[in-house]
């Protein structure tokens, strides 16, 4: 009998393979008090800034935009630059982006960022309680113009029909999640 994970669409495979690491990340964010006060939220924005800076070039990659046509418009790095300025967070030193150039791995990284826009629906409401929103401090958490659900479905459909290598895509997604967890570890240990 064939393995149901291996025969399902790429987006379902990505979800299944990264379920545990996503849970680990959600838990780490929520227990680190990142939505309890301004310093916690500043740490969250710094983590997001670093991760999206790593991805900035991928969102402008023409080969990847042939798979997801509105890819450049999905990029949240400019909003993160503004959120950093709103919150008086100095941009950290540039580091080399670890993102792979293989298109399947690269799309795995982008899956992490695009999927995070679903969880951002919850996080937006928590950020609002701290006084941050679409015009100050939480610009990057706002939904894409099509809405969270439609934007996510369009991304899933695009990657599902692209003929990408599922194994390499999963490697990219796992690397993306690990990168966010590493950034989280560096800000939370600095605060402790
Ligand atoms: C930067 C941090 C985060 C990243 C990178 C991230 C990543 C993702 C990804 C890739 C997905 C798509 C899963 C799929 O394939 O359907 C997702 C969905 C989701 N995330 Fe997160 N997430 C983050 C933080 C959070 C947090 C803190 C919460 C909870 C408070 C959360 C709650 C959710 C929820 C509710 C969904 C939708 C699940 C579903 O519809 O089945 N996320 N996230």
UniProtKB/TrEMBL annotation:
Task: Return one Gene Ontology term, BP aspect.
Answer: heme oxidation
Gene3D superfamilies xrefs: Heme oxygenase-like (1.20.910.10)
Superkingdom to which the source organism belongs = Bacteria
Gene Ontology molecular function terms on file: heme oxygenase (decyclizing) activity
List the InterPro entries hit by this protein, alphabetically: Haem_Oase-like, Haem_Oase-like_multi-hlx
Report what the protein is called: Heme oxygenase
- Give the source species: Gluconacetobacter liquefaciens
